[in-house]
Amino acid sequence: MVTLATCFRTGFGEVTLSRHSRTNSRKEQNLRPWDAADELLLAHLAEQMPAPGKRFLIVNDQYGALTVALTTASPGYPIHFATDSFLSQQAARRNLAGNDLSDASISWHTSLDNIEGEMDYLLIKLPRSLALLEDQLYRYRQVCTPNTRVIAAGMVKYMPAGVFKLLEKILGHTQTSLAKKKARLIFCAPDLSDKTGTSPYPISYRLENTDYQIDNHANVFSRDSLDIGTRFFLANLPILEAHIEPGQAGEINIADLGCGNGIVGLMAAQRCPNAKIDFYDESFMALASAKSNFYRAFPDRSARFIIDDCMSSAAAGHYQVILCNPPFHQQNVVGDFVAQLMFRDAKKALRQGGELWVIGNRHLGYFNSLKRLFGNCLVVAANNKFAVLKASRHP
Fold first, then answer.
1. Angle CA 17–19–24, to nearest 5
2. What architecture is domain 203-392?
3. Are 307 and 86 contacting, i.e. CB atoms less than 8 angstroms apart?
């Protein structure tokens, strides 16, 4: 049965949507898998009713609301779906399946793919990161023609002035709709005759106190320098050799969970030459950055770079050490629900006696969460802003 919590009514039809989240957070589960910007954009398109066969590129569709709604149209539209989020891609696929809709007309792309062909519509849900938007506008400029309808949609409170400047600099003249339910559309008329330049990403810097060159794609946290939390974590990493089991020839399995650009796992690899490092993240750009950084530093070593929902795919009891710098928000929602899911996945993936090491802001209360989950937690180091915590898996 369709419930009010999941029923999404648009001018293209009625569908059911879910966030398809594994977290137990009541706060997150109570949130709708669409926002007023999705509603406003679809209402505008329904008024125009694009002709069948028009080609769409949809960017940053967090739970697939735009994609699912447009797929209900008959005979339908060829859709290219582009995102930096594995979770968004999975949610869109599951919401299509949940509405018995085929994805045969949909081409799935990561944020790093080159998309070929000309698009009739470029629909962009505005990301919070201006750097990501800048990279996307340069990347998707190649699919635009003077006739392409470019529409960016977002909530007004997440729409800084820099959005308009980027659109005009990279694509062309903009104008806005009236705000409705705190959402707004930005219309852009592509005029590429005098547009030059390319995306400045990835950008690089030298990791302090090392010779390592660090690459960062646009959607990586702290792109141009080492952030203070990671710096504190690196100064207090565990003595990894202590976890090497007798008869294992110096080998140890380590995971960098929520790896970002992979600096934590890279430094673990430096300190433990025989370690097998796995990098986990849900951002395609993060994993690409981590992979580039690791193989530049260690061209003769191997590692795994795993796109995942936290560590849902990890084998039980595989790791001796998991290193984690959790995010404290997902998209526009601030909370610890992603961190809590990371902790649960990590406990399952640890061997008996294995350790989860976590860096976090002191006010987030990770100590109590880890102690409840593992039955133990130790403050390894702390300053006025951060704490490094260790929880061990015991029978």
1. 135
2. 3-Layer(aba) Sandwich (3.40)
3. yes
Is 7-190 a CATH 3.40.50.150 domain? yes
How much is the pLDDT for 2?
34
Domains 7-190 and 203-392 equal at CATH topology level: yes
Query: pLDDT (tens digit, 9 = 90+) per residue, 45-104?
Result: 999 999 999 999 999 999 999 999 999 987 789 999 999 999 999 999 999 999 999 999
Q: How far apart are CA 337 and CA 321, in angstroms?
A: 22
Beta strand pairing call for 304-307 and 106-110: unpaired
pLDDT tens for 20-58 read 888 766 666 668 899 999 999 999 999 999 999 999 999
**Contact yes or no for 94/18 (Cβ under 8 A):** yes
The residue to which tokens 């140890």 are assigned: 252
pTM of the model: 0.94
Distance CA 88, CA 51 (A): 27
Show me where the domains of the chain are located.
7-190, 203-392
Residue pLDDT, tens place only, 178-188: 999 999 999 99
Q: Are 262 and 289 in contact (CB under 8 A)?
A: yes
